[in-house]
Amino acid sequence: MSWKKVAVPVAALIIFGFFWELLVWVNGWPNYKMASPSDLWPAFWKFRWLFLEYGWDTFWRTVAGLVLAVLCGVFLGMIMGLSRIMRDALYPLLVGFNAIPKATVVPIIALLFVGQHDMNTILIAFLISFFPIAVSVSIGLSTLEPEYRDILASLGASRFTIFWKIALPKTLPEFFGALKVAVTLAFIGTNLMEIVEPHGRGLGHLFDSGKISADYPLMFAVLIALALMGILLYYVVVAIEKVFAGWAERAPT
Amino acid sequence: MHRPLIDIKGVRHAYQTQSGPLQVLDGLQLSVPDGGFSAVVGPSGCGKSTLTRLIAGLMKPDDGEVWLNGDLVTGPKSIVGMAFQNPVMLEWRTILQNVMLPLEIVSTNMSKREKEDRALHLLALVGLEGFEDKRPSELSGGMRQRASLCRAIVHKPEVLILDEPFAALDAFTREDLWQTMHAVKAEEPFTGVLITHDLREAIFLSDEVVVLSGRPARTQYVMEVHLKGPRDIEHLYTPKSADALNILRHQIQIAQGRAPAEEAAQ
């Protein structure tokens, strides 16, 4: 782990901010058209306690939705990966479900469980993010080369042993690939619920209040806060992946 | 004559396909004595891999019987070891852990220490000393195949099934591995069946070459190999070996339907 690994992305962020600032300044845009990075800091500072409180709401709901998505996604993926019939039966259902814009599901969920804001938000985060996990796990399991199975099966190993010793670990790289996609999707889900069905909590609510009070720098500040949380959670997943599926990474040559 | 260790009697098998049943084996006979090593050759797609799965007990024949060491095979037995053309390794394990995999399935009375020692001993035998802690991705194709061979015999199987294990290797690596096979057999005697497309490999490694007919496969021709015991590559370049190879090549042509079958009568 060299300092470059941290310095390069940080430098990229700073350069990005610089060009953003430059763009706004050159065009002379007022901050209701496009806020510049220098407008954001005052907004962050002014609402720092709300950012902490609502940021935490959004964060834990997203993580909860993600955990649910992992559990259900892996379970569905296992069923579809191990049984042809279940795969044929469930794929069209899942694809159809995933094709429905989640913004249209929000009012349905909100009406189904009136007032259960935490649960509703978690549900949307889950619904939007389990699909890539289910698909990748099922593909990982169903594309297991028969030789892998034969080596253990010829020794009389049970299906569970084969799954536990070979199929499951072999699917981990695909699983983590999907989890990285799911992380960002889950944030979209959480905020969708918080913005479309405002209930006074979460960064989505803060965004909404910025809109209502025409505080444009605040709206941009919320977006940046979401981006930062997305990056943070993404790298948490990367760190977990390193521990459990680090073997899949080739040594640099 | 003592009882053969592998005895395949009149095995018939068909796969169900969309265009009806596809007969792949039709009256296949094969018997290998204890300590014997038979090579099975035949045209592409004639059902050789089906044969390996039958011996391993991974599938049941429609008709006929497969006997291993006096027992009728009805399902997987832990007394076989398998190696394939694709030396599948568990990429998340070290080479040593890969080799020890069968010992985690088969019940043995070996201690952890003994298992490890045995795996290390086999790795040294095939020339992989010092590679035990490497990951499979760090090894070349030939080295992976060597490790795969160790894994196939680590649990001292009574029967070793090799399904074209050297087919994907370059010619020099392949010849190296042929030599390794003899070294392994000298130290760890096994009874085996080798599926191969390479007639030189068949003669160099086995005691007996069985030629299968085209699909549906039956036993078309059996040739006892004139070479005995461990051998050198030079033995492949003697007139006797050339004669044997010619006979086999001719038999393959008959199996492919490219030469008249009358000459096959023997």
Description:
By secondary structure, chain A is mostly helical. Chain A has helices at residues 3-27, 37-46, 48-82, 84-99, 102-112, 117-142, 146-153, 159-196, 202-212, 216-245. In chain A, helix 3 runs parallel beside helix 6, helix 3 runs antiparallel to helix 8 (159-196) and helix 5 (102-112) packs across helix 6. The mean pLDDT of chain A is 90. Chain B is of the alpha/beta class. Chain B has a domain at 1-76 and 191-266: P-loop containing nucleotide triphosphate hydrolases (Rossmann fold, 3-Layer(aba) Sandwich), CATH 3.40.50.300. In chain B, 32% of the residues lie in helices and 24% in strands. Chain B is built from eight helices and ten strands. In chain B, strand 4 and strand 5 form a beta hairpin. Chain B is globular. The mean pLDDT of chain B is 86.
Task: Give the helix/strand layout.
The complex is a heterodimer of chains A (253) and B (266).
Chain A: H1 3-27, H2 37-46, H3 48-82, H4 84-99, H5 102-112, H6 117-142, H7 146-153, H8 159-196, H9 202-212, H10 216-245
Helix pairs in contact in A: 2-10, 3-4, 3-6, 3-8, 3-9, 4-6, 5-6, 5-8, 6-8, 7-8, 8-9, 8-10, 9-10
Chain B: E1 6-17, E2 20-32, E3 37-41, H1 48-55, E4 63-68, E5 71-72, E6 80-84, H2 95-99, H3 101-105, H4 112-125, H5 141-153, E7 159-163, H6 171-187, E8 191-195, H7 199-205, E9 208-212, E10 219-224, H8 239-255
Parallel strand pairs in B: 3-8, 3-9, 6-7, 7-8
Antiparallel strand pairs in B: 1-2, 1-4, 4-5, 9-10
